[in-house]
Specification:
The chain is an alpha+beta fold and 291 residues long. It is built from 11 helices and 9 strands.
């Protein structure tokens, strides 16, 4: 119906009326169609580059946030919580670690967002001399004194990043790093190395039995509302605290109707819009190798 000239009446929303009827009569079918057509917002950078490791994505933080979300629901999600508790593995070795292999630090008093350790080093070494081999050896001794042994470092097999568990900014380390980069000079530090990995069996079970779709919060809520109206086995789960704008859409894979909806969400979509997290994590594999 066309709006009469000189009136403020809205035209009859026939399409909206029929959509509401279809949603009421066939909620699962309606959700499946909506999943195919829904516009999804970009996820942004998940694992940013930084000289500080606490600005990187953390698998520990993701597991903790998602597990806490699941605990707020009924016991139907207990099995997934148990699998998540086994997902991250850790082992400790005594190994030499190359200073040029380090990607970040655990602590720094600097608030600047340097993209890597070399950028941090350029702004941290101050007036410390680093021009000669003797300077290099002295700076290494000052940065890693025997009194601070064991020097602790972490390697993350799922993204291939190393970081040093330091006690604060070290101008001596910054100077040594600058010399090593400029002169192509390396040095190994005897360290207690914690290796953070992924339990492949637990990950395979999660991928086999559950959907873990990562979306923006604004994209996920409308979809979850439609799935809830269809009374399908799905819940929302938090991501990690650094990215509170992202959430998981979690579902069981033993529901054919839900599987169709999730596949429609994924089909012809970029990983910049939606991420099947279990599949993504299975592809992030950088096994530790002795240097």
């Amino acid at each position: 119906m066309k709006e009469t000239e000189g009136t403020n009446a809205d035209p009859l929303d026939i399409e909206g009326f029929f959509n509401r009827i279809l949603q009421s009569l066939f909620p699962a079918w309606y959700a499946k169609q909506a999943a195919r057509e829904m516009r999804l917002q970009p996820l942004g950078v998940l694992n940013p580059n930084s000289f500080l490791c606490h600005r990187w994505m953390s698998l520990h933080a993701i597991v903790a946030a998602l597990s806490e979300s699941l605990q707020a629901h009924d016991s139907d999600w207990k099995d997934l919580s148990e699998l998540l508790s086994k997902l991250v593995t850790e082992r400790e070795l005594k190994r030499p670690v190359s200073i040029m292999a380090l990607d970040g630090l655990e602590q720094s008093s600097q608030e600047e967002e340097w993209p890597n350790l070399l950028s941090w080093a350029e702004h941290t070494c101050g007036s410390i001399s680093f021009e000669s081999e003797d300077d290099f050896d002295r700076n290494l001794r000052d940065a890693f004194p025997d009194s601070n042994k064991p020097h602790r470092m972490v390697y993350r097999e799922w993204d291939g990043r190393y970081y040093w568990i330091n006690n604060g900014d070290s101008p001596a380390f910054a100077a040594a790093l600058r010399y090593a980069q400029q002169k192509q000079r390396n040095a190994n530090i005897q360290a207690t190395l914690s290796i953070e990995g992924v339990n492949q069996k637990a990950l395979d079970r999660i991928r086999s039995d559950y959907w873990l779709l990562l979306l923006t919060r604004d994209s996920a809520y409308p979809m979850f509302d439609l799935i809830s109206r269809a009374e399908l086995p799905a819940v929302m789960g938090e991501f990690e605290w650094r990215r509170s704008d992202l959430v998981f859409l979690v579902g069981r894979k033993n529901s054919r109707k839900l599987n169709q909806i999730m596949l429609n969400l994924l089909n012809n979509r970029s990983s910049q819009q939606i991420l099947e997290f279990g599949r993504w994590l299975s592809r992030q594999n950088h096994p530790f190798r002795n240097q």
